[in-house]
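Thread: sanity check for a docking pose with NAP

Original post by kr_44:
Hi all, I'm comparing my docking run against an independent structure prediction. Below are the sequence and the ligand SMILES. Could someone generate the full complex and paste the structure tokens? I mainly care about where the ligand ends up relative to the chain.
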Amino acid sequence: MSKSAIDTIMEKSVIPSFSSLGSSIRSRLFNWQTLSSYSLTGKVVVITGATSGIGEAGARHYAQLGATLVIVARSAEKVEALTAKLQKETGNNQVFSVIADLGDQDEVRKAAAELALRWPVINVLVHNAGALFNKRKRAANGTDLSVELMVATPFLLTGLLLRNLEAAAQQQDESTGMTPAAARVLTMSSGGMYTQPLKVDALQMSEESYQGAQQYALAKRAQVILNQMWATRVPADKVVFHALHPGWVSTPGITEALPGFSRILGPLGLLRSADMGADTMVWLSADEQAMNSSGKFWHDRQARNIDMSNNTRNADTPTKRQALWQWCEKHTNWSFTP
Ligand SMILES: NC(=O)c1ccc[n+]([C@@H]2O[C@H](COP(=O)([O-])OP(=O)(O)OC[C@H]3O[C@@H](n4cnc5c(N)ncnc54)[C@H](OP(=O)(O)O)[C@@H]3O)[C@@H](O)[C@H]2O)c1
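Reply from moderator J.T.:
Ran it for you. Here is the predicted complex with NAP included:
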């Protein structure tokens, strides 16, 4: 049986793919290049949600690979402790922070203005912050917090930083001295999005029908669709866009959101470590393969289908996609101009 046939069978049977088995088997099967062999020297990487779990593991790799690392976080105390820790552990002094609650559009705008001013060229922007709220939470503007944090905020932040990202393609690549490279925008979605179709009118569940896992999956589905839509709007020689899912990862976030799930899978060794969960994110930030396409959805270093059922496939229409984009533009008061 070929390696890709084994990979496909794993993907279709979910547990071997999403669990720690997925990354252990695939890393050996495809002889993954170690992350430590890449360099991000001379690259500016901006990441959200790095004060915990997958993002923190990713941030450590970025610092180790020599990136100028900018962590956008809501807690000044947490992020100061983290930047000091990363600088000490990796010897990289180019680790910075910008403070923003990403559930608050005013703070997102302020953070974007600060980022744009301090780092005129941004090479990698990683939208990793996210959470599953079993009990509904609302953003500062009253929107469902899952939708604000994981749909509206990444849209607005990408939009407000677009010129800084596009500037990367004009910058000489210091690490190789070769031609300038397009920037990369990465969005951390979830395999949970396979369970929900694209919805725009009902993107925010009603109060009566609210279920945290379903609301989370709706937002994660929207992220994957928007990733594809950005890729059709922005030329890939300027910016490439990729979404990904990390599998099932042992993090404070999953323990809080899905305690039963963690209690069962954890002792069986089926949850991934945070490092495993961050692998494809860091790999997409550094490997040349990410530059060969735009708008893809990745898991374990392979582009994947965004649908596993006709339910989600049939619901994904050009009209609904357009409506989602328009919702984002109206909601954030930011419009795309090529
Ligand atoms: N763990 C999994 O199995 C899994 C599976 C699929 C997808 N994911 C996705 O992976 C990403 C990381 O998740 P994780 O498991 O590593 O979770 P985590 O440990 O809870 O980390 C979440 C991060 O997001 C930040 N964040 C949350 N709300 C924020 C807000 N309003 N403003 C600014 N930052 C905020 C958190 O900041 P604080 O430290 O201040 O709370 C933290 O840094 C999320 O997008 C999640 O949906 C995870």
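The mean pLDDT is 95. Hope that helps with the comparison, let us know if your pose agrees.
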